[in-house]
């Protein structure tokens, strides 16, 4: 009954006092051999040099050196919990995915994160928040790797490494650099919508419990008859949206969101989200006023009203942060029958990127770790490799004549649709109202309150007033915001002391 996890303190409390001191197990090496001492290395005489034969000391030092895996290249700082998705409405006309059938309950894991900071960075800084969910369905893992924003900064994965380079530390000074950030944003007008959201107080949520989650991309749903629909996911916080002002965010302790989530779940105050979808009939995509696959755009609610389909509740903390959260591996490519990718170029890039990252960061067999292992049975022809745990069963190749597993092409039939065209490198063809500024302008004009607008202006001005931001860059910043809305640009100009209009 020895503590096998970080719950050691609970174990200690249970076995406390005198019994704890007498009934304790003998320390062992990782090979289970009783250890000779918890404190003293083997030396030649009490003051002499140490011996190479002290395999226990060597194991301890060597294992310690290997306690880390590389941190995630983005979204390094985060925390997570387990929960359950319950579907309350019938959406079988849109998807045959088993986890979305009325009455279904699916165990899940979430990892919330910030994007640009390192593993130990502060939780409350201005940044989008990751909202990555793994659903352990009976058809295998379905991962929805979203953010707390319905949109993103760019629309082509080609720009992702450059975008991230501009947001993280410089290679020369190892400092973050707001001039570099505004340089990238002002040269990438498609960023305006997401930067507007980021600069509102939604860029500094009060906690992970008080923010919405969005699948962000458009995905494909198909029903049992093979009818197709485009879908967007919205997880609306039942705790209510709560944000921090820039000053409040600056004053938060580093691990404020990690602690908040852990403590809420420990005290039984289980956070929940109402799950909604927007559904677009397959054929409407071609002529929709916005490109429905452009990640810098939302589908206005008036066009496609969100439909409530269920509730998602977090009920259990992980027991071992490293094993279950640091080694959690989310992949936008994990779809289950009834769900597939859309042609969103960002999504297409991400389908490759994540499993590649996991093979580097965790290892080729990351899917065999308990947190990533599907609850569904695995019958795969992949085997061996570092840290193999799963046994190959029967024949190890396909086709074979010995009864090995056989794929079922029927299952993903609804995913197929016709595409034709010339191979090009170009931006999306424009739909009627496509424009980089029209949606952030709607946010400014229609959605934000006066207070929200005041904070948006002061947050932008604060950010672009960093000492490294040059006078020329400030002019570009003003132009960028004037393109969103003249009033916004003028107010930013006044705040930054930039003349002219
Ligand atoms: P609606 O008026 O129907 O919806 C506006 C939505 O904006 C709300 O439902 C809410 O979405 C979100 N919102 C409310 N307050 C804020 C805030 N202070 N900061 C950021 N978002 C807020 O209009 P449309 O659907 O036509 O969208 C208008 C604009 O609203 C869009 O251009 C976009 O910038 C923004 N928006 C739209 C969303 C969508 O999916 N249509 C989602 C989020 C923002 P929620 O309940 O998801 O928080
Ligand atoms: C993490 C790549 C866009 C949400 C990551 C990681 C990579 C990556 C390599 C680290 C994975 C790991 O080591 O575990 C990319 C690329 C993108 C992109 C190439 C664009 C082409 C996005 C978008 C969203 C998003 C648009 C949200 C809508 C996340 C989240 C995580 C993450 C939530 C953290 C997952 C976790 O908690 O483990 N991304 N990303 N990313 N990304 Fe992206």
UniProtKB/TrEMBL annotation:
Key words of the record: DNA-binding, Heme, Hydrogen peroxide, Iron, Metal-binding, Oxidoreductase, Peroxidase, Repressor, Transcription, Transcription regulation, Zinc
The organism's place on the tree of life at top rank: Bacteria
Keyword Oxidoreductase: yes
EC number: 1.11.1.6
Disordered as annotated region, ranges: 1-43
Record's keyword annotation contains Metal-binding: yes
Stretch forming the signal peptide: none
Record-annotated Catalase core domain positions: 28-406
Catalytic activity field: 2 H2O2 = O2 + 2 H2O
Family, similarity comment: Belongs to the catalase family. Belongs to the Fur family.
Name of the protein in question: Catalase
Range of the intact protein held here: 157 to 657 of 657
């Amino acid at each position: 009954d020895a503590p096998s996890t970080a719950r050691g303190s609970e174990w200690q409390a249970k076995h406390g006092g005198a019994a704890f001191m007498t009934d304790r197990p003998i320390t062992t090496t990782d090979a289970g051999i009783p250890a000779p001492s918890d404190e003293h290395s083997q030396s030649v005489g009490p003051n002499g040099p140490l011996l190479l034969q002290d395999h226990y000391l060597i194991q301890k030092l060597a294992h310690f050196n290997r306690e880390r895996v590389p941190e995630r290249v983005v979204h390094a700082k985060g925390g997570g919990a387990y929960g359950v998705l319950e579907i309350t409405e019938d959406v079988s006309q849109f998807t045959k995915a088993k986890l979305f059938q009325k009455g279904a309950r699916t165990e899940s894991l979430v990892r919330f994160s910030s994007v640009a900071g390192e593993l130990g960075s502060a939780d409350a800084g201005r940044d989008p928040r990751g909202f990555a969910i793994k659903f352990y369905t009976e058809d295998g893992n379905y991962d929805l790797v979203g953010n707390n924003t319905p949109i993103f900064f760019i629309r082509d994965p080609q720009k992702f490494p450059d975008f991230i380079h501009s947001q993280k530390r410089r290679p020369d000074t190892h400092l973050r650099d707001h001039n570099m950030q505004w340089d990238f944003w002002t040269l990438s007008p498609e960023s305006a919508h997401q930067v507007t959201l980021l600069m509102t107080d939604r860029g500094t949520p009060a906690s992970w419990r008080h923010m919405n989650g969005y699948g962000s991309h458009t995905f494909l749903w198909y029903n049992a008859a093979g009818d197709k629909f485009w879908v967007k996911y919205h997880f609306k916080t039942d705790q209510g949206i709560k944000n921090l002002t820039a000053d409040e965010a600056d004053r938060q302790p580093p691990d404020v969101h990690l602690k908040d989530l852990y403590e809420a779940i420990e005290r039984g105050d289980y956070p929940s989200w109402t799950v909604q979808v927007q559904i677009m009939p397959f054929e409407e995509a071609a002529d929709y006023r916005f490109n429905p696959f452009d990640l810098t755009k939302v589908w206005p609610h008036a066009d496609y009203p969100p439909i409530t389909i269920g509730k998602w509740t977090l009920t259990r903390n992980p027991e071992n942060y490293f094993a279950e959260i640091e080694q959690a591996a989310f992949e936008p490519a994990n779809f289950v029958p009834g769900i597939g990718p859309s042609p969103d170029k960002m999504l297409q890039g991400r389908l490759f990127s994540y499993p590649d990252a996991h093979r580097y960061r965790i290892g080729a067999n990351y899917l065999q770790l308990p947190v990533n292992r599907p609850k569904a049975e695995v019958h795969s022809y992949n085997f061996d490799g570092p840290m193999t745990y799963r046994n190959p069963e029967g024949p190890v190749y396909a086709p074979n004549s010995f009864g090995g597993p056989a794929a079922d092409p029927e299952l993903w039939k609804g995913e197929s649709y016709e595409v034709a065209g010339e191979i090009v490198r170009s931006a999306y063809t424009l739909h009627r109202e496509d424009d980089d500024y029209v949606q952030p302008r709607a946010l400014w004009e229609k959605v934000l309150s006066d207070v929200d607008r005041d904070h948006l202006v002061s947050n932008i001005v604060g950010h672009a007033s960093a000492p490294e931001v040059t006078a020329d860059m400030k002019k570009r910043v003003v132009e960028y915001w004037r393109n969103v809305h003249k009033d916004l640009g003028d107010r930013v100009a006044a705040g930054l002391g930039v003349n002219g209009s």
